[in-house]
Design a protein that fits this description.
By secondary structure, this protein is α+β, with helices and mostly antiparallel strands. The chain is built from three helices and three strands; from the N terminus they run H-E-E-H-E-H. It has a three-stranded mixed β-sheet. A hairpin with a 2-residue loop joins strand 1 and strand 2. Helix 1 runs parallel beside helix 2. The protein is elongated. The model has no long low-confidence stretch (mean pLDDT about 85).
């Protein structure tokens, strides 16, 4: 969906935030809604705030320079990380797929 589900821009289209950034109605440096919640996973930093990140990237293209924001970096415990790497349910976990074992 291209509509914000929470935060300062809840209910608004993402494109409207890009326009607000472009016009100066919203300032990245003074708005706390641009502190992105992130996690480090498989060596990369991933944002939970996909729509805001997309709007910031679009704004950066328009102004033709990097846009710097603050992040809160959450740590994953090793068990959560392993689970997420292996999590791929096809039917909400109601069945399993058994793969052939690799030759030793």
């Amino acid at each position: 969906s291209d509509i914000f589900g929470s935060g300062d821009h809840k209910g608004l289209p993402v494109s409207e935030l890009v326009e607000d950034l472009k016009s100066g109605r919203v300032d990245v440096e003074s708005s706390s809604s641009f502190t992105l919640s992130c996690v480090k996973f498989e060596g990369k930093i991933w944002s939970f705030n996909h729509r805001r990140l997309w709007a910031l990237k679009e704004f950066a293209k328009i102004v033709q320079h990097d846009v710097v924001v603050n992040i809160v970096l959450y740590q994953l415990c090793p068990v959560t990380s392993t689970f997420m790497c292996r999590f791929a349910p096809l039917d909400d976990g109601l069945s399993i797929e058994v793969r052939a074992s690799r030759a030793s």
